[in-house]
Amino acid sequence: MSLITVSFAAASLCAATLPPFPSFSPPRAVTGGEHDHFLANYFAINCWSPDNRYMLTLETDIKNTLPDGRPCVLGLVDLADGNRFIPVTTTRCWNFQEATMAHWVPWAKDTFVFNDIRDGRFCAVMMNWKTRRERVFPGYPVSAVSEDGAFALSINYARLYCTRPDYGYAGRGQDPRLGTVFPEDDGIFRLDLRTGEARLIVSCASVRDQVPPVTGTNGLSYLCHTAISKDFRRIFFLSRSVGEPNEGGRKKKRVRWETTAFTATVDGTDIRRCFPDGWGASHFNWKPNLSVRDAATMVVTCNVNGNRRVCSHVEFVVGEEEKVRRIGGAEMDFDGHCIYSPDGRFVSGDGYWDKNYFRHWKIVRLADDAVRDLGSYFIPEIYRHTYCRCDLHPRWRPDGRQIAFNSVHEGTRQVYVMDVTAGK
Question: Over the stretch 139-171, which tens digit does the pLDDT of each residue have?
Answer without folding.
Answer: 999 999 999 999 999 999 999 999 999 999 999
